[in-house]
């Protein structure tokens, strides 16, 4: 059921519209109000899908229903009037009306179709806004993650890193309370490393006992969400969070283990959104790997060298969009610092569940190389399926059913290690390390291998995020262009006299602009401008636009304002501003006798000067109710005759040299 609120004090018009909706197959429910006061009263108790209002009502103008508080839910509004004029039309559109209709028997009878078109347009607008909001949110999230990643990589000590993490987290989530605990391997306990905000516990370095929330999060590796931490049974008697504060407690992980816990709280009634929870877990994951790398940095000189390498890999990840190049840089560093013969990355294809060879270093002198394998099959497949690191020694007994390729690898490389590439809980692939002689790696070596795997997982994830963002941008751009083309087609359908005109002039305008030496980037805006050159005619009444006879002076005056209407309609749309020159100035003339501003010579933008010739050329060669189409020769003669008066002489010369200007009508 589609609910329509009709606001009109003329019973005959109301009855005509009511009958039209009753005859229409769509299931409409029409509610009628005769005044603005009645309409507001109805809006306070119901939520229609569309408002159709007369402009002149007994207690005010119908445009008062467009904006809050009369219309707090931003219901689309169509304004109609029997006393239409330019000011009413402009005021209605400026006030936010979705459409403006001059009352007539035909327009009132056609109101159901008008309502359907308006609802479709409103839904399209809402979808575009939602897409823009989602894209902006994703961009903002990526900016925060990138800023925190850079900040964490720039920290020189563990304490500085924790300080940066907590402060950046508070800033990103717009709160004032956060506490960070870090696991101390020497004591086997979680220790409070840093706090921000109004914590109530007096101890500066509170130990966490078994059974409370933070310990549970640390032990399980799962986040905990609460509306009010003080009300939780597991909460410590020494409360770190004031009463009436809730939030999220997330584990801070490396690729293998939980090394800390981050609690961020907000005061009720505010609660964290899902997007904020996702951002916090992302920051916690980044922090976990960063803290892990820093601990290695502080342990030994060898760890210093390895972490410097990780930093270089991080920079390669953040500065490159070519995944193959990034992975090759990563593998080259890893091969040298791990002191191994060969290293490879197999990327998991989530559609086929096959690990596909993506990059490798060191196989040049061998006939044996890692082959693609299914998830769960082969050594690499088992590591990915079981989501844990495996070595050749740990799976040697399981080689009896292995393929010839697997056995050949085992004969060639006595040491093999496989690490799953996991980011945000998703397996992205497997990192394989191969050495011809046996290896007995220490904890540091294994930790560095895990860190490299983490970086590879992040590189793959970043590439997927970048590809998704590019795809979203392309889809958004395509939606914009489709919208423009839809507007253009709607204008052609409305102005029967010029149907098909827009498509022809767009193609010829592009050819002429290219011949004038304009770059491809400018051609994009010229194409949009040509498509929308007559968009201002939406503000011209149908009785003038479709008049078969000559227009009066007053009607010509209104018709000429379509260029101004175009500017007023399009200038608020940021991405269309570079395309405004054609809709705004294509009726200016070289000698200054054109409109709307009487620009002269090169005061007129080049794109408008180009389009002016194409527009006249197509118009002369098209049939009109008051004359037949001119021949090509006669139209060319007219263009030459008005060279230097109506048209730019240089543009005319270029136009005359175009080989395909007479190709279509």
From the alpha carbons, calculate the radius of gyration and give it in angstroms: 35 Å
Structural class by sheet pairing and helices: alpha+beta
Mean pLDDT: 81
| Strand segment count | 18
CATH topology of the largest domain: Beta-Lactamase
Strand content: 15-25%
Largest sheet: 6 strands, antiparallel
| CATH top level class name of the largest domain | Alpha Beta
State the CATH architecture of the largest domain.
2-Layer Sandwich
Enumerate how many helices there are, as a single number.
23
Write the layout of secondary structure elements.
Layout: E1 2-7, H1 11-23, E2 28-33, H2 36-43, E3 50-54, E4 56-57, E5 60-61, E6 77-81, H3 86-95, E7 99-102, H4 105-109, H5 111-154, H6 158-173, E8 177-184, E9 189-196, H7 213-220, E10 224-226, E11 245-253, E12 258-267, H8 274-299, H9 301-319, H10 323-338, E13 342-349, E14 354-361, E15 373-374, H11 378-386, E16 390-391, H12 392-395, H13 404-412, E17 415-423, E18 426-435, H14 443-494, H15 501-515, H16 520-531, H17 542-545, H18 553-560, H19 562-570, H20 581-585, H21 606-620, H22 632-641, H23 649-656
Parallel strand pairs: 1-2, 1-3, 3-6, 6-7
Antiparallel strand pairs: 4-5, 8-9, 8-12, 10-11, 11-12, 13-14, 13-18, 14-15, 16-17, 17-18
Helix pairs in contact: 5-6, 5-8, 5-14, 6-8, 8-9, 8-14, 9-10, 9-14, 10-14, 15-16, 15-21
Describe this structure in words.
The protein contains 23 helices and 18 strands. It is α+β, with helices and mostly antiparallel strands and 665 residues long. The chain has four domains: 2-126, Rossmann fold (3-Layer(aba) Sandwich), CATH 3.40.50; 155-297, GAF domain (Beta-Lactamase); 301-466, Beta-Lactamase (2-Layer Sandwich); 495-656, Hypothetical protein af1432 (Orthogonal Bundle), CATH 1.10.3210.10. β11 and β12 (258-267) form a beta hairpin. α5 (111-154) packs parallel to α8, α6 runs antiparallel to α8 (274-299) and α8 (274-299) runs antiparallel to α9. The longest helix has 52 residues, at 443-494. The protein starts with a strand and ends in a 9-residue tail after the last helix. The model is unreliable at 200-211 (pLDDT under 50).
